[in-house]
Amino acid sequence: MVDVEQALAADAMSTLTSLLEHPSDKIKTLAALTIFHLSVSLKGKERAVEIGTVNELVALLDSNDDA
Questions:
Q1: Distance (Å, whole) CA 23 – CA 5
Q2: What is the pLDDT of residue 65?
Q3: 57: which residues sit within 8 A by CB, 6+ positions away?
Q4: Rounded distance, CA 39 to CA 13, Å?
């Protein structure tokens, strides 16, 4: 089990957010899933908003890439 506090302190949210632009759908899916797990805590939610993760997730949902 991953320690959310340690992951956030290690800037995992930024790394995962950058992976949302990866060409592989599998990588994007796993990044989004991990972001979800990190965002269960209030600290994770705050970090996601602070660095623009939420906007990146919305952009991913809005994308027309059906490939």
A1: 29
A2: 60
A3: 20, 32, 35
A4: 9
E strand or H helix that includes residue 3: none
53/20 Cα distance (integer angstroms): 9
pLDDT tens, position by position, 15-51 = 999 999 999 999 999 999 999 999 999 999 999 999 9
The whole-number pLDDT of residue 1 equals 67
Q: What is the pLDDT of residue 2?
A: 74
Nearest partner of 38 among 10, 9, 13, judged by Cα:
13
Q: What is the DSSP string of 6-43?
A: HHHHTTHHHHHHHHTT-S-HHHHHHHHHHHHHHTTSHH
53 membership: H or E segment, kind and range = helix 53-62
| Cβ atoms of residues 56 and 16 within 8 Å | no
